[in-house]
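chain below, 323 aa
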Amino acid sequence: MRFLPAVLCFCALLAGAPAYAEAPVDPLSWLGRVATAGQRLNYVGTFVYQSGAQVETSRIAHRVDADGEHERLEVLDGSPREIIRRGNEVRCVLPDERTVIIDEAAGGRRAFPARLPLSPMGLAENYRIRKGELGRIAGYEAQALVLEPRDDLRYGHVLWAEVKSGLLLKARMLDERGELIEQFAFSDVRIGGEVDSDLLKSRFAPGDGWRVVDARASGMPRNDSGWGLVETLPGYSLSSVMQRPLGRDRGQAVHMVFSDGLAAISVFIEPAGEGSAAGLGPVSTGAINIYKRTLGGHMITALGEAPERAVRRIGDSIQPVGQ
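prediction:
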């Protein structure tokens, strides 16, 4: 379970009729509409994820009913993978590894097309937000929204929302030079209407010989973790503190999340074991930067879709409280 942070990050990246309201005028209201649409509409579609030379196609079906949100996402390229969501429970199914990872959806879900927080009001403190031009995505008219970071501690974003429903059709993340880091874009999507239950069922049947990893966290008071930042990172605040199981006889990891409302940096603190010195320092994989160091018998892993300098500063500032 030493790779728990990376596994959870992978799961997070994958992880009724539309309300046709009049399109808002100001960009902040548009962001609120986009955040709501991704979680409250029915939709079925295929989207493409691009990060550097990696291109991956996924199929998604999302339904909202009296029992809450139901979603199935299947990666169509390479090794078969799928994510099944029922309310707050998320199951990441990895058939080649004969493994099912069970986790819980965070309060603010990060996966495309629901990448925005439900309350985007605070984003203006860290991003300059403006409307872009109208475009055409997957056969729909789409409004572009531009979020330019106010410093070098977060990435820029361009979002395209379907004009009538507000559903996010395309999302592009940009570095400080304006160059593409990653992109999600629907190639085909149906918004609204009924979503058949068969589209939400797993096509795999885990049984004998499969490993089930329960990675669900238990919440804890923020002041009880025993860890904190020596120096805060501008725009980022502590949004949650959890404990996550590490496996048999290995105890639990403290999982802290620092966020500006859009960018999020997770910090995992766990007992250092054999081989902990391997892989220390910064590592980049697509949009995700990872930074590891050891401190007082603990392995500290900071990771997130944020510039390396921001992830490193968070990782270096984590200290036991009172030291």
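The first strand starts at residue 43 and ends at 51. Residues 12-19 have pLDDT under 50 and may be disordered.
thats it, cya
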